[in-house]
Design a protein that fits this description.
Length: 127
């Protein structure tokens, strides 16, 4: 019997980037969604939560996406196309990305014996 080992879904991330200072963008959050509605809902909830703290232009852009752009986002996701929402507030760009993804299950590490090779892995030291 064949077992389905993969699952299609969407990988969602939130990044912030300073437009006034040099430096790489920083990933703030990530989320694995297994449907288009869950993916765009994650972005909508985050935008609703932060919209009161955004300046007028960024708040307006956020609510415009929630009322009008979300429909286009959902349609694009159903066509397996990546989507981005990026309001800018006080010199900071906040970007949510949603990309189609192919998820593979990981081995459950509890109540099972790990293979010997699992103990050979040594993470690299960061500087």
């Amino acid at each position: 019997m064949l077992v389905k080992l993969h699952r299609w879904g969407f990988w969602c991330e939130c990044w912030t980037e300073s437009l006034t200072e040099q430096g790489p963008p920083a990933r703030v959050a990530s989320f694995d969604a297994y449907s288009a509605p869950r993916a765009d809902h994650w972005v909508a909830v985050a935008l609703q939560a932060i919209s009161p703290a955004l300046d007028a232009d960024a708040s307006s852009a956020a609510w415009e996406w929630m009322y009008d752009g979300r429909i286009d986002t959902r349609r694009a996701l159903l066509r397996a196309e990546p989507c981005t929402v990026s309001p800018t507030h006080a010199g900071t760009r906040i970007t949510w990305t949603i990309r189609p993804a192919f998820f593979l299950p990981l081995v459950h590490r509890q109540a099972t014996e790990l293979p010997v090779c699992a103990y050979d892995f040594k993470p690299h030291q960061t500087d």
